[in-house]
Specification:
heterotrimer, A alpha/beta (324), B alpha/beta (275), C alpha+beta (336), A: 324 residues, alpha/beta, 2 domains, 5-stranded mixed β-sheet, 3-stranded antiparallel β-sheet, C: 336 residues, alpha+beta, 4-stranded antiparallel β-sheet, 11 helices
Chain lengths: 324, 275, 336
């Protein structure tokens, strides 16, 4: 796939269709590619696409909104939902972007390799579902499915929903992904248990803002948490509940706009299960207003910004609590 | 526990002078009515209103003033707006002195001096000017070129007229940016005014003002034949700790709060252009 | 040198914990974490902890003072308390070196009393690495993973833990532990050699620092490579927060409702408001902020500290950066 992508990128750059290519650049090791912009055919030498190219590139397109020329971007299925959402919010201009869809059967998480004992990694080769990891302390044969990132284990869709051309075969939605299973488990807890669970998760937060900064739905030019006049200092918890507030407010802010790409949990250096907050909102909205998938369609109106006559009454919240 | 410079002392505001529409000069003493600490001209202090924030300000008064310290502060942000709302008797917190200050006891000694200030840029220089005037036996003659947006924006105007202009060792040239009724002095920007005045090339120059004014004035001085090594300025960057630890006021490997705020231009030349 | 059988580690930890708080790396579901020792806690085998050990001396948030404000009156309340005695066990050579770097900032005049109190009351027991990993590059900064510093250095052999005191504080602790047996001074030689042999094979061990240092300021600052290096930086603070040597802080006031609390917290040069002040911002682009972080470690810090670099090669930033950009890539690109 990498070579086909490189070839198409070279062609589109060479014939002037696009002026830059947004992709991934090879790293120091087999598992650490970095999102990168390529402006010449020669620079594409360093282009890479493999099982570790997890970064969602859609958000970088905001940066090119005010720049001349068309950008070629490679979008995986989950990234394409984010792109549609940005399009809906007028943060990107469709005509300025040339999208090549790339199929995805899940990205491997470095952490998972480590959990399986891979330390001192010297090389990684993948063949189908087999991952051969060469390490200083011996070689490991791992199964890719067991090393996928958390979000890929409950992938909602293998379908690229917006593209100018598709490389390989497009996938399909995956309604039986079970992405709400964990949310249901949380719902089944007593309020005390649930509070305990979230306090445990959120108190790990170090306020690095990685979740916010990677989130394609967090596209504000200036975040309220960066505004000294907002009275909410961004850098540390002034009291013991503040980091909880940060995440709760953020979840509210992206409610209805979050496409469930899972980048927040992927990048969290403290491994907080942030995507569960968003999934709770998605599940809640699905139950109240009918199934809705942010980013499935550009221009769609999210339930929270769309009034319809048959919207449920606010009292439904109480009804639900009463277990009806 | 050991002494902690980050824990401030209390200062009491005993007098407030309205200098310009957006500059006030505050007189501060300690709870005991005496000066909170001694300083060198050009050094700064951290002032704060608890709950609002802390900020670094030049000490405007001369160390030769044995009774109190003064701070001329322009209203331009959150903390300064709060300071401007204060009334006499208000307590603030104060810690310092911080920074290197001007080399009044070494490099400046015996020299003829030229002070060039724009707007609130007079604040850090006023300390040196009055220090030099009080110890005139140690210094040569003093030439002050000061300008502001308008006549109303000249800080310390009364002191300039009453004291500086009356001092035979001091020559003062004032300018304002645009013509104004009732002003019969010079009109025009500082850089061109300095070029017109053709100051004596042997003078050591101390300059402070808005970055753009400093830039053009320095260019003019160099054209006239001044060396960068005879021109001093004082910098202002965001500071939190004031003791070279919090890591935000660096220009290259120099910390403005500790290694500065006073730099010679030949020293600044060796640093990255990030200020 | 002293020793104790690995099977008796619990006994050792219990004895230390009897008089002081003891912290050591313990495995969690997601990596090792410094945890207060309690009966049954098991020392992690991980190469290193996810977060660095700097938290013990420079916590993410700490109170500095309180103020009572009444009308025009202000009262300053010194809320500092002398730190309690504590022991950190299992610190790696890289992190031990990072304490020296923090010391060079916080223990120079004027001494930071908050930090100093913790340093004085903390005993650092280091543990030589036995399984360094591919993200380790401490050797590039002259650190020997087999000979960690600290108040007490420890080595793990097949069946015992060897302990050697390096400071008076360390000696005093060892003297108080009666279950320790004497060991030959050469007892750790074999494990040291084994560690060094692995270190030689690490892919980043020979990372060159030749292109960096205090004397290379303007050439590096003006490099045109910063633009592409920083182009995908998210401007988050992950690298700075997991870094054992990042020591920048912010000071903030918090109105508790019955007084004002002044606290300090970690800050990050990657944040847009780091240098923002009323009259403007000296670093308006992410490229400038990104450049500051690496220039600080590779140029500014060595310029002020006799050529010592501000990085210890622990590799945490390599593992944590959401976009996999890190100091190694920066060094290789700038040098290349």
């Amino acid at each position: 796939m990498q070579e086909v992508m490189k070839k198409r990128a070279s062609e589109l750059l060479a014939d002037g269709t696009v002026v830059r290519v947004l992709g991934w650049k090879n790293g120091e090791f087999a598992y650490d590619p970095t999102p990168a912009v390529f402006q010449t055919v020669e620079s594409l030498e360093a282009f890479v696409y493999n099982d570790f190219c997890a970064s969602n590139l859609s958000k970088y397109l905001i940066k090119f909104l005010r720049q001349e020329g068309k950008t070629l971007v490679f979008l995986k299925p989950c990234d394409s939902y984010s792109f549609n959402q940005l399009l809906t919010e007028h943060r990107v201009i469709r005509e300025n972007v040339y999208i090549i869809g790339v199929p995805c059967d899940g990205k491997v998480a470095e952490d998972k390799l480590r959990e399986k004992g891979a330390e001192g990694i010297l090389g990684i080769e993948t063949e189908g579902d087999q991952i051969k990891v060469k390490t200083l302390y011996g070689d490991l044969d791992l199964n890719k499915k067991e090393c996928l990132g958390e979000r890929c284990l409950s992938c909602k869709s293998h379908q690229v929903v917006v593209f100018d051309e598709m490389l390989g075969e497009n996938g399909e939605e995956n309604p039986d992904c079970g992405r709400f299973d964990m949310v249901e488990k949380l719902e089944a807890m007593t309020p005390e248990q649930r509070f305990e669970f979230w306090r445990g998760e959120l108190s790990k937060c170090i306020r690095c803002n990685a979740c916010r900064n990677i989130c394609p739905a967090c596209s504000c030019e200036k975040c309220v948490f960066d505004n000294p006049a907002s009275g909410i200092s961004q850098k540390a918890a002034a009291d013991s509940f503040e980091e909880n507030m940060f995440h709760i407010i953020r979840a509210f802010h992206v409610a209805g706009r979050c496409t469930d790409c899972g980048e927040c949990s992927r990048v969290c250096p403290q491994h907080i299960l942030l995507h569960l907050l968003n999934r709770k909102f998605i599940k809640e909205m699905n139950e109240c207003y009918g199934e809705y998938q942010a980013g499935a369609e550009a221009g769609s109106r999210a339930p929270l910004v769309n009034f319809t006559m048959d919207d449920c009454e606010p009292s439904i919240i109480y009804t639900k609590e009463a277990g009806k | 526990m050991r002494e902690e410079t980050l824990i401030p002392k209390i200062g009491v505001v005993t007098d407030i002078r309205v200098d310009t529409p957006d500059v006030k000069t505050f007189r501060v003493v300690g709870l005991d009515g005496k000066k909170v600490f001694e300083h060198i001209p050009g050094q700064c202090a951290m002032l704060s209103i608890p709950g609002v924030g802390e900020g670094m300000f030049s000490i405007t008064s001369s160390p030769t003033n044995t009774e109190f310290m003064e701070f001329s502060i322009k209203k331009c942000g959150c903390l300064t707006s709060w300071l401007h709302m204060m009334e006499v008797g208000q307590q603030i917190t104060i810690r310092g002195p911080y920074g290197n200050g001007f080399p009044v006891e070494s490099d400046l000694k015996g020299k003829d001096l030229l002070f060039i200030a724009g707007g609130i840029g007079l604040a850090p220089l006023r300390s040196v000017i009055n220090y030099v005037r009080d110890k005139k036996e140690n210094y040569g003659s003093v030439h002050i070129i000061y300008g502001s947006r308008s006549a109303d924006d000249l800080v310390d105007y009364q002191e300039i007229i009453d004291e500086w202009m009356a001092d035979e060792n001091v020559k003062v040239d004032l300018t304002i940016d645009r013509p104004q009724e009732g002003w019969d002095g010079h009109v025009g920007f500082i850089p061109s005014f300095v070029e017109e005045l053709k100051p004596d090339l042997s003078r050591t120059v101390l300059i402070c003002g808005p970055p753009i004014m400093i830039k053009f004035t320095l260019d003019g001085l160099k054209k006239m034949g001044f060396e960068e090594s005879q021109v001093y300025t004082t910098m202002e960057l965001r500071m939190k700790c004031a003791i070279g630890k919090c890591g935000r006021c660096n220009i290259g490997n120099k910390y403005v709060c500790k290694d500065g705020p006073v730099f010679r231009f030949d020293q600044l030349d060796e640093l990255p252009n990030e200020y | 040198m002293k020793k104790i059988a690995l099977t008796k580690l619990d006994e050792l930890f219990a004895a230390i914990a009897a008089s002081k708080s003891l912290y050591l790396p313990v495995d969690t579901e997601k990596g090792a974490k410094y945890t207060a020792w309690t009966e049954g806690a098991k020392l992690s085998e991980a190469t290193n902890t996810v977060r660095s050990a700097k938290d013990f001396f420079f916590p993410q948030v700490e109170d500095m003072a309180s103020f009572k404000v009444e009308g025009k009156k202000i009262e300053v309340i010194d809320t500092r308390k002398e730190a309690e005695d504590f022991v950190v066990f299992g610190v790696r050579a890289c992190d031990a070196k990072s304490f020296e770097i923090l010391d060079s900032v916080y223990l120079v005049d004027p001494v930071d009393s908050y930090y100093a109190s913790r340093r004085e009351h903390g005993v650092v027991m280091t543990l030589a690495c036995s399984r360094p990993t591919e993200t380790c590059f401490c050797k590039a900064f002259g650190i020997d993973a087999a000979e960690p510093a600290g108040d007490i250095s420890c080595w793990k052999t097949e069946d015992s833990l060897l302990l050697k005191a390096n400071t008076e504080k360390g000696q005093a602790l060892l003297d108080s532990l009666s279950m320790l047996e004497d060991a030959e001074d050469t007892a750790a030689d074999a494990v040291k050699a084994a560690t060094r042999e692995i270190v030689e094979k690490l892919p980043l061990s020979n990372l060159s620092t030749d292109a960096f240092g205090g004397d290379k300021l303007s050439a590096l600052f003006d490099s045109d490579k910063w633009e592409s290096l920083s182009e995908s930086c998210l401007a988050c603070g992950t690298c700075t927060f997991v870094c054992p040597t990042c020591q920048c802080y912010d000071i903030r006031d918090y109105d508790t409702g019955h007084g004002v609390k002044r606290f300090r917290c970690w800050d990050s040069c990657m944040y847009s408001d780091f240098t923002l002040c009323a009259h403007g911002n000296t670093r308006t682009t992410q490229m400038q902020r990104f450049r500051q972080r690496f220039m600080h470690k590779l140029v500014y810090y060595p310029a002020n500290n006799n050529g010592v670099f501000g990085c210890v090669g622990c590799g945490r930033c390599m593992r944590s950066c959401p976009i996999s950009m890190n100091i190694v890539k920066v060094m290789k690109t700038l040098e290349g």
